[in-house]
Design brief:
Blueprint: E1 3-6, E2 9-12, E3 15-17, E4 20-24, H1 34-44, E5 48-52, H2 55-58, H3 73-82, E6 86-90, H4 121-138, E7 149-156, H5 165-177, E8 184-188, H6 192-198, E9 204-209, H7 213-216, H8 218-223, E10 230-235, H9 252-265, E11 267-274, E12 285-287, E13 291-293, H10 312-324, E14 342-345, E15 348-351, H11 356-359, E16 363-365, E17 380-386, E18 391-402, E19 404-409, E20 412-418, E21 425-430, E22 435-441, E23 457-464, E24 467-468, E25 472-477, E26 497-505, E27 512-515, E28 521-526, E29 529-535, E30 542-545, E31 553-561, E32 570-574
Parallel strand pairs: 4-5, 4-11, 5-6, 6-7, 7-8, 8-9, 9-10, 10-11
Antiparallel strand pairs: 1-2, 2-3, 12-13, 14-32, 15-26, 16-25, 17-22, 17-25, 18-21, 18-23, 19-20, 19-22, 23-24, 26-31, 27-30, 27-32, 28-29, 28-31
């Protein structure tokens, strides 16, 4: 079996082939949904699936690798092959994807002399080990080995970021030295400078864009007149950030016309076929003039909705693809069932400060340090200190904050600091021996651009009444051990709190959507699975609840609420998503 590039064409087993692909991120879609997704992909007329790989999920702790469950990329690719789909794999090390830190592990920031995405020897050493490990999963599935993987990417949109050509060349060598004998490629923006800085000898150059095919290929046609033409990310929607006015949507017919234009010129990978969900604390952020953290849903206004439903955009594109393929397309599979499981009131709650010692162990430092220096990458961190004198209407101020912090004296919240709102200060009053606490939330590391390496928690100077205050205990809170919480309080009247809900289901269950309308800001964990963040600022108003997270019998939902209730502590499971569409 052989897949190669000859002149302007892709050649599969000696015959020209046009790649019609869709992007599906295995780490954003639970494994029990993969069959449904691939069935709908084949029914669309696709012959290929494309996926990124998330380094920060596969190596959450340095040297400890995980390819189980939702991270089983080999099983994902094997299942795709059973549906007759070829595969394109983009293992990073950087992926962007509106994913936390662009797919890079948070712990890279703790390594001395580290600089990402260049020939820095510390960075090269770490990602080389990651690539070697993920190659063990993917290598047996290469097309040359009887699998379905036809191409792999060596870096992602590097022309937007840097210009280290040696770095790109070394990446190509690592791939080849590790037995990756299929075509390699890069993908970049469409400007001349993007292409010049992002391409490298030995790799096919592909482009990323969402419209105006001929215009966007102008520079590429000049630089690579005898190369296959492929849009590796033909954007069919966009991502949402907390505080956006509404969920981003695009016109179905306009996108279908762009797909048609691209298929006349060459091959296409539609980004996204299904977006899926940023479960847990995996959503990234953009940071230009303002920090813009992404919402939990990665619906993206893709061809399939976040929960896998067929859209008008899917149907419009299906009509276009039909024109470019031989024979009738397979029948369209139905959508998965949804269910409303009603309203539920919290049965009890627990105060965060009462449970700090159960959820974390204090780490002493003279002055507060960033989250990463305490050995934690995600979630929250609480800094606490005992005041050694009275304070009357003074300010606590921060040189830098990542990304949101609330200042408490004992159980009373005096104010909130957010990275977008200067100055970073809160006025408070306190008595000698009072406990001052600063609760910091990491809302997602930047996934694109020069501000990627930016620390979380308190970074830089922290002053009280204009002076450095010494003597702090830090409590890292990755929030992955909520079984240790001691509940028992019936009503929350102080501070940041956990709310427990219990409900019983019988028989089989379906996908659902969680409304948190009476809550303001936090995250939700159902039966130990972190569904993701919610925030009243929207646009997203519901969290997707996959059927496989629910179970027959007793179900337990825990909400962590940081900002206080708007009403009774109730939630509702509904059968309809609400992403804030106008």
């Amino acid at each position: 079996m052989k897949f190669e590039i000859t002149g302007k064409e892709f050649i599969k087993d000696g015959k020209p082939v046009k790649i019609i692909s869709g992007a599906v991120h295995y780490f954003r879609n639970l494994p029990d949904t993969w069959d449904d997704i691939f069935g709908k992909m084949v029914a669309l007329g696709c012959n290929t699936v494309e996926t990124y790989c998330a380094w920060n999920m596969h190596e959450k702790r340095m040297g400890e690798f995980d390819f189980s469950g939702i991270l089983n990329v080999a099983e994902f690719l094997k299942k795709a092959q059973k549906y007759g789909l070829m595969a394109i794999v983009r293992p990073g090390p950087y992926i962007c994807a509106e994913w936390e830190f662009g797919g890079l592990p948070w712990w890279l920031q703790t390594l001395p002399e580290m600089e990402i995405r260049c020939s820095n020897p510390v960075y090269m050493g770490r990602f080389k080990q990651y690539l070697q490990r993920i190659f063990e999963e993917v290598r047996p599935l290469l097309f040359t080995n009887g699998g379905n993987v036809i191409m792999m990417q060596v870096e992602n949109e590097y022309g937007y970021y840097g210009d280290d050509k040696k770095y790109l060349s070394d990446l190509v060598k690592i791939y080849r030295e590790n037995g990756i004998d299929i075509p390699l490629f890069t993908s970049d923006g469409t400007k001349r400078t993007d292409i010049l800085d992002g391409t490298v000898d030995g790799c096919l150059s592909t482009l990323n864009f969402g419209s105006r095919v001929e215009e966007n290929f102008a520079a590429h046609d000049e630089f690579f007149p005898d190369s296959p033409k492929m849009c590796m990310e033909m954007w069919n929607g966009w991502f949402d950030a907390w505080g956006d006015e509404a969920h981003h949507t695009t016109d179905a017919e306009d996108y279908a016309k762009t797909v048609d234009d691209m298929l006349q010129k060459g091959s296409v990978n539609m980004y996204m076929f299904i977006g899926g969900t940023n479960f847990g604390f995996t959503s990234g952020a953009n940071h230009y003039e303002k920090f813009a953290p992404d919402v939990t849903s990665y619906d993206y206004d893709a061809l399939l909705t976040e929960c896998g439903d067929v859209t008008p955009k899917y149907l419009a594109v299906r009509d276009v693809i039909q024109k470019h393929t031989d024979g009738a397309l397979p029948p369209l599979p139905g959508n998965r069932k949804k269910a409303a499981y009603g309203k539920h009131k919290a049965v009890e709650c627990a105060y965060l400060f009462d449970n700090l010692e159960k959820l974390s162990s204090p780490q002493y430092s003279d002055v507060p340090k960033c989250m990463e220096e305490y050995g934690v990458g995600y979630g929250y961190i609480v800094y606490r200190t005992q005041l050694n004198r009275d304070y009357d209407s003074v300010k606590i101020s921060f040189e830098s904050i990542g990304d949101r912090a609330q200042v408490y004296v004992n159980d009373c919240c005096f104010g909130t600091v957010y990275v977008n709102d200067m100055p970073y200060e809160v006025e408070f009053s306190a008595k000698k021996d009072d406990i001052l606490s600063v609760v910091c939330e990491n809302m997602g590391r930047t996934n694109f651009g020069p501000k990627m390496i930016r620390k979380k928690g308190i970074a830089g100077r922290c002053l009280i009444d204009g002076k450095i205050h010494f003597g702090w205990n830090a409590y890292p809170l990755p929030m992955d051990n909520l079984d240790k919480i001691v509940f028992g309080v019936k009503d929350s009247g102080k501070g940041e709190s956990f709310f427990k809900f219990e409900f019983t289901l019988e028989g089989t269950h379906c996908d659902s959507f969680l409304r948190t309308d009476n809550f303001k800001k936090g995250f939700a964990v159902l039966n130990g699975f972190n569904l993701g963040r919610y925030w009243e600022v929207g646009p997203q108003k519901t969290l997707y609840v996959p059927a496989s997270v629910l179970k027959s019998g007793n179900n337990t939902l825990i909400l962590f609420e940081s900002d206080g209730l708007k009403g009774e502590p109730t939630v509702e499971f509904t059968d309809k998503p609400d992403l804030g569409v106008k």
